[in-house]
Amino acid sequence: MSKRIFISADHGMAIIYFLQSDVVPTLLAAGVEIVVLTDDETKAKIASSFVQPGLTCEGLISLM
Q1: Whole-model pTM?
Q2: Which of 2-6, 11-15, 59-63 has the highest mean pLDDT?
């Protein structure tokens, strides 16, 4: 059974700081899938800047 972590941040800088930390590669190396939930306006920009297998970006509005 794989593990999945959801990270929710509606402020662009908070999620960028998280994605630049050592936490993300450590979790991905352990086989954990990371789903980043952020505002729809910055979703595409964040998704294209932080492309890694196991890391997915989703918009907060599109989930409602």
Answers
A1: 0.83
A2: 2-6
